[in-house]
């Protein structure tokens, strides 16, 4: 984890700010920093998104491939996460420096996406037991400004929303073997439903209080945080996984408060993200967008 | 400027990938017009105002933009030197490339012809004419839109360059751009966008100065054609076909029409050894010989057997609806099929449901005279009997009636009995030797154009002399008594022999082969041309050389009394023809004499001649006999084919006389030593170059191939053993009939037809056991002795020269892949050259019999259900004797049909008669044995009969009795 060196006085200052519900940058404990999101900017990928949350910068690309389903779950497609911590983000990531962090992020994402209720793996199935889509979600961390879990999950969800799978029709051969035919129209695609796709909300405990979207400095002050993954189902937020980070422990009541805070924040975040994605899609239309911010 | 093109692709492993390519758009692509003052242009303008074409449709000067369908369908119109100032869009060029590589090649030649003013405009990379694919737009629609966009841009661009003031001053109308398209949808859209547009047919018809160009238009639909009922079942769509093939419900294969029965054919499919039989017009479903088709296999109870009927299509006329005739044909077929259904010979039968790829080419043939005068619609009869008649439209029928013409097929709609096509060009008057030879060469894909200047530039400079350096490099054999023995009139002598006694009592025998590889250096244009031609093609009275004449008849040819370069293969042998030693080297020789087989024979037989040449010939002859005997004992086969020679008139090139080729001892003498040389060289290069030696093998035929031979021999009471070459050879020797001296030859002719084709191959591509040459019973073989007329020999020469250090190697020599490709080409050319040679003999036979009627003795080769395949040894002529010639004959024949099966290989005396000049067909009629109503009447028999006619053998009379 990127380490920010803080003096005791600075830490105390942050702690007091949290206690007063008035953080260093003027936010309350339930506030997020401003975000910038753009989708479909990597033309080589099937879907892509780039999210900038204050100083945290994430680029996600989704690649597709045809694979054979796991025999235990013949009707499920596959997802695979990969996180790359770019040495651009911080010099500590150089070499294998970022692999622990990357591992942690992959695990928490896998944990959140694991339940079929959180992600409908059936939509990725082409022919049960024979062929399915496998999505490679490649996440690149370009800058670390705290709250990586949230940023990564938001960007991943946006990239999935942007993913276009070529429309495939299957023909049945003898002996039950099937063959796939792809549509020759590059605009003829299927999309992935993202309604239930979970978001991660990091609830960070500083002093006696819990807050969301910690900045890098706040993360240093925190003894423990819980990453809450929130999946929406029929307009209701559900918990699809939790994950503790940091060295400390948590009291049962604090834990309950944290989860509740995470759920309510997650629900709100989800609504906003979905709304913004739809707005962007309407604005851009079906044709390949001219990228605006990044990678122009 | 840059944009991206995205598409999805399926990989071989079945993965689906999204592929994105960068696509650069430029602003410096010129429009190629000399009117333009804006574009950056090269000095050379392709579109000039000098070439104007007058059209009643568009009065102004104009440029043409072609749609892809126009290029694909009307390439023959484009090839005529009429249309100029044509803008070729890169979109169109790419589409043509994908759809048809042959048309693309022809089109490309047009584009590169500077005099034609075709300008390629790279619209796909021009910033103003690039069309990005819209959502919900098919690839085709996008291309159409790109074409319209470019046309529109051109028109606007040119108009901007032509100021009205200038036009007023010069009095010229503004140059416009016209889109030619045959796609109705595209045309409508273009009209809506304000583009000048026309269909190709309308435009060509509107040209005032070239009325005959209309003939070359491809016709998808004929005007005022009666909307007849569909005569064929519909073809499946491409999608259905591919799906069916993938699901293995349909089978894919090349369609082969039957030469004998136009209502029958077969499709070669991998799993089926004999291919799938297709019978009847509806099952054939518009497939033309060579097409790649999809077949549906019929259920087993509907399987049928090959009808063995010889059925030729009768004349039909363009305007007739030949329903009765057709019904009769079909009825006959059905009857046969039903009869066959009970027999055990049923083979997999299917019907064609769709065409995967057409293999239509251009066909030679003649126009059938039409019943109605002044009609434009005609029927074209192709020279190849496997090709159906083609319906064409022409305004010059009267001129073309007695000419050989070339026609191409455009389409074959469901409601037309025949495919639709159009006239391409005329080859010349019918029956003219030059025209007929041209037909043979075209039909057999023989490259026969003159050697290009580039090729000729690699010939040695004349006068050519042997330098001191050459002498130093080569072994000097000028003192030896070397002579050559060849057929009379041979000018490309590629082999010579010598034999001398050595002091130790042994003999030294040398075979000297023309050193062609000295003159043809690898990789140059001359070498490439020779490699592409592969072989010299011999037609009656005409030779199409593989190498230019300077080499073939002069510098390489080992003519008598002149110093020539040779590649020598020299053996030391003892008196019993056992090879004791061998060596190869390049040499300089001076042939003492070039003889014909006959001359050599005379010298050998004349014991008064005791000079060196005579002695050496006698020694060679003696050794050859020993060699031959040894070869026969090994199981080499003596095969026969009816070979004849024509005496050709030197002026008119018409055949004067026919003679069967005679085999003399000297033929066999030369042959033996050539075989020995070939085998020796083959062994040598195969050990030196185990991976890339060019060899020749003759695979052992599968036992089923021998069925007709074994059957035929059994009818005659002989047992033919086909277990091995040796046993076959022995049993063939035993097939002798005292009363019929030709019988053994007949059996051998039949055996020849059972054989497989011998092929060239690369040693690395096969196992050593497969190198075997079945016919010669040699474990390894190659061609070394005729480099003037075969390219394979040149390759062998190069390998051999490299192995003995006489010549340098080069990379290609040792490259297996390119050599394999070369071998494929050589095999194909070799086969085609053989067919062309045979076709030429057949043609000359026709010419020879024109207007003649003769009685000759013939033999039955095969028995078909309604015809006999007859061979006349005197002329080496094969023909068909139809049994059901009229109704009266039918009675007698129906009863004797079963008998006739047994007379396979018995003599029949047909009378030859050439009747229909237009179709040049030989007609065979039975003279003896006499069958009432079928044979020629006895009176005429008596008057026409030649004194040479032999008395009928006893068996025949027996049969006559039975009949009575």
Topology summary:
The complex is a heterodimer of chains A (about 300) and B (about 950).
Chain A lengths: L7 H12 L15 E5 L7 E7 L2 E12 L10 E8 L13 H15 L11 E3 L3 E13 L4 H15 L1 E3 L1 E5 L5 E5 L6 E3 L7 E8 L2 E4 L3 H6 L2 E10 L2 E10 L6 H33 L12
Parallel strand pairs in A: 4-6
Antiparallel strand pairs in A: 1-2, 2-3, 3-6, 5-6, 7-10, 8-9, 11-12, 11-13, 13-14
Chain B lengths: L1 E9 L5 E9 L37 E5 L1 H6 L1 H5 L6 E4 H10 L1 H12 L5 E4 L17 H23 L2 H7 L5 E5 L3 H9 L3 E3 L1 H6 L32 H9 L4 E7 L6 E5 L7 E4 L1 H4 L7 E6 L25 H20 L6 E9 L4 E7 L8 E6 L7 E4 L3 H4 L2 E9 L8 E10 L3 H11 L9 H4 L11 H6 L1 E3 L5 E4 L8 E7 L5 E8 L1 H4 L5 H9 L3 E3 L2 E3 L4 H7 L7 E11 L5 E12 L2 E4 H9 L6 H23 L9 E5 L6 E6 L4 H24 L5 E4 L9 H9 L9 H10 L8 H12 L4 E4 L28 H13 L12 H34 L3 E3 L2 E6 L3 E6 L4 E6 L4 H16 L4 E8 L7 E7 L9 H7 L9 H10 L1
Parallel strand pairs in B: 3-4, 3-6, 4-5, 6-7, 10-12, 18-25, 19-26
Antiparallel strand pairs in B: 1-2, 8-9, 8-11, 9-10, 11-12, 13-14, 13-16, 14-15, 16-17, 20-21, 21-24, 22-23, 24-25, 27-28, 29-30, 31-35, 32-33, 32-35, 33-34, 35-36
